[in-house]
Amino acid sequence: MTNPLDPARLVYRITGADRIDFLQGLVSNDLARLKAGAVYTAFLSPQGKYLADFFLVGDGDGILLDVAEPLAAGLIQRLGMYKLRADVSIAATEITVTRGLGDIPEAAVADPRDAAMGWRCYDGASPDQDVDWVALRVSHGIPEAGIELIPNDSYILEMDFERLSGVDFRKGCYVGQEVTARMHLKTILKKGLRRVQIDGSAPIGTDITSGGKPAGTLFSQANGYALAYLRFDRIGPDMKAAEATLTPAD
């Protein structure tokens, strides 16, 4: 059974002479990075809010798009709306994503978000390793689609996309770029994703209070730690999420 905190992945193949230019004008990262390996990126609304995050991987005369299953249909539909007359085709595949830690197999690519997240493979050459991926991403402060990353609500800079190599500020225009660039250049972020220690547990989405005042929202939890979206001015030793007690971890 799929862990709801670690959703299944679907892989699509994007082909056509215009595939690079097409994606370059839509996503938050620079497609030039494909030459070095996998690219982690996001598709945003015109208002700069997160809609989906995914990996792009070069595959001969095509590009593989690796996305969380719950977001796949909506993402592919939106990408299709931007195709117009571009020479681009997007097709579903039967490819299964496998993951692991340690030495990167010849057929795999490094996870670009954090070296601790190991590698990803798309041709079945390397078996999936038995790893507690939820605990690993909580330990390294990595948000997941549909959990910490909430479509039409999250901003990628508040979700640490700069640290996770998911955004490029020099690449030029893309959907939502103006808002993202303004946040980067002119705004001191007041909220964002943080790792906390948790004593007890509470459902994902539980409100967090600090000194009795609203402070944020609790998300993924593992091994005594959790990811939380917090107001920075209310991070402190007296945070609560229902009956659970939270303290800063970093």
Describe the structure.
It contains four helices and 14 strands. The protein is of the alpha+beta class and 250 residues long. The chain folds into two domains: 9-186, Probable tRNA modification gtpase trme, domain 1 (Gyrase A, domain 2, 2-Layer Sandwich), CATH 3.30.1360; 191-248, no CATH class. Strand 11 and strand 12 (225-231) form a beta hairpin. It is globular and about 55 Å long.
Q: TL;DR?
A:
The protein has 250 residues and is an alpha+beta fold. It is built from four helices and 14 strands. The protein has helices at residues 19-24, 69-83, 133-139, 177-186; strands at residues 9-15, 39-44, 50-59, 62-68, 89-92, 98-100, 108-110, 119-121, 191-199, 207-210, 213-222, 225-231, 239-241, 244-248.
Q: Could you describe the largest sheet, including whether it forms a barrel? A: 6 strands, antiparallel, barrel
- Main CATH class of the largest domain: Alpha Beta
Helix content: 10-25%
Cα-atom radius of gyration = 18 Å
Task: Name the CATH homologous superfamily of the largest domain.
Answer: Probable tRNA modification gtpase trme, domain 1
Structural class comes to alpha+beta
By CATH, the topology of the largest domain is Gyrase A, domain 2
Count up the domains.
Answer: 2
Number of strands: 14
- What is the rounded distance between the termini? 33 Å
**H/E series:** EHEEEHEEEEHHEEEEEE
Tertiary shape: globular
Q: Count the helices. How many?
A: 4
What is the averaged pLDDT score? Answer: 96
Please give the CATH architecture of the largest domain: 2-Layer Sandwich
Kindly estimate the percentage of residues that lie in beta strands according to DSSP: 25-35%
Question: Which blocks of ≥5 consecutive residues have pLDDT under 50?
Answer: none
What topology, given as strand order, has the largest sheet? 9-12-11-10-13-14
